[in-house]
């Protein structure tokens, strides 16, 4: 919509606000995907009864991990609410910029918890690593198939889930091709 509104470049503040809200969404979404969907299999094992292999089973068997699941997702939702006015369907972004800034009150509330959230995220990263190391044979073949990959990347080729160029990597020979995704042009 920025292009439609004739905006070539956002202000630094607008881009930072949009990115912060987007990163809050990524954090809460990854918390759901990892803790609620993947961790039951990783922590309880594929052989555990299906009725037990869920987030409740994780909370019962690993109360600390269950706490991380709840509070990391909650923090991501707080970032979304602080930047976008509400956790679901935030209303921050408007064509050409944003419609509000981060209040000092919200900024301070987020700063208060960020060190703890970061620590829990780092500890959570050790869970899949320990699973892979203890199940090396399974990891070598499980869900392994040739696949192409595509992502938005920044100017130095780093993954950037907000803005950048589209990078596709071929499954066969590993060749990559990069295409700019801005400005967007469409034929109607």
Q: Brief description of this entry?
A:
This protein has about 190 residues and is mainly alpha-helical.
- The helix tally amounts to 5
User: In what order do the strands lie side by side in the largest sheet?
Assistant: 3-4-5
H and E order: HHHEEHHEEE
In the predicted model, the low-confidence regions spanning at least 5 consecutive residues are 181-188
Q: What is the helix fraction of residues, given as a range? A: 40-55%
Radius of gyration, in Å, reads 20 Å
What does this structure look like?
- The structure is a single chain.
- With 188 residues, this protein is mainly alpha-helical.
- It is 53% helix and 10% strand.
- The protein has helices at 12-44, 55-61, 63-84, 104-134, 136-141, and strands at 93-94, 97-98, 149-153, 165-169, 176-180.
- Strands 3-4-5 form a three-stranded antiparallel sheet, with no helix packed on it. Strands 1-2 form a two-stranded antiparallel ribbon.
- Strand 4 and strand 5 form a beta hairpin.
- Helix 1 crosses helix 2 (55-61), helix 2 (55-61) packs across helix 3 and helix 3 (63-84) packs antiparallel against helix 4 (104-134).
- The radius of gyration is 20 Å and the shape is flat.
Notable features of this structure?
188 residues; mainly alpha; 2 domains; 3-stranded antiparallel beta sheet; two-stranded antiparallel ribbon
